[in-house]
Amino acid sequence: MRPIIVPRRRARAIASCMAAILLIGSCAQTARAQVSYSPEELDELAAPIALYPDPLLAQILTAATYPDQIPDAAAWADEHHYLTGDELARAIEADHLPWDPSVQALLPFPSVLEMMASDMQWTIKLGDAVLSQHQDVMDAIQRMRQKAWKYGYLRSNAQIIVSGGPYITIMPADPAVICVPAYDPLIVFAPPPPGFYVGAAIQFGFAVRIGSVFRPWGWGTTRILWDRREVIVNNVRWDRVWTNRANYVHPYPRVVRYEPRRIVERHRLVARTFREREDARLGHVVREVHRRR
Questions:
Q1: Model-level pTM?
Q2: Where in the sequence is the domain holding 75, given as residue range(s)?
Q3: How far apart (Å, rounded) are the C-alpha atoms in residues 273 and 276?
Q4: CA 264 to CA 119: how far, in whole Å?
Q5: 23 and 53, same domain (yes or no)
Q6: Torsion angle (degrees, nearest 10) of CA 170, 54, 83, 65
Q7: Taking 50 as the threshold, does the pLDDT of residue 194 lie above it?
């Protein structure tokens, strides 16, 4: 009897799909070892977001602790990029999205989610650092802000109000409008060369109006208390750390909460459907081999 040969392309596809399923399962287990980063490493992790307005920064820090949900959220935000305001809020609620509210809070900012999803290694490291070294992360953000302030890049303008006290705060000039800054960390955290115009180093081209309709996701009540190094979400201190990351629930009263069981069941359904389809395909291959013999 001749051995049954599965076409190489199909074999690679099966292997890739099975690897993806195993990866999904491992993510659901959240069984990563606790990490510890040096101040220099934390500065590097904080640099891309250190100059974001405090309310947006707080949402990013909390959302980064759910890295497995970021790619799906980024895809959803991209598919619904044409929605804003009330229409976007209704779409988020209508879809009963399974992600943590901190991740859902970033759906009005598809560019932010795209940034996080395009560099998952950075996002995972940032989330792990927030869980295990929360105060160190806050200190790193302040170090980077102090550098940008010292070199003249970080100043108040029409979009943001920057304080220059012992702790630098960055607040939106209009509380209902969040502007996403664009800057190169290699430039704004280093001394400017002679003749360089520092005023053009940070751009604010993308703004999102966040009205009262987004309050269920913490907008308007989420902030950072820098003197205590605390993130306040929905007027409650955010206390998710490494040891309680498997069962911590954010203080959001109305938003659909993250349900790990729903995610795991969905992945199991995908895996079962994949196996059934592949069994049917392989059965067809076997029948075709026997027919040709």
A1: 0.77
A2: 32-258
A3: 5
A4: 24
A5: no
A6: 150
A7: yes
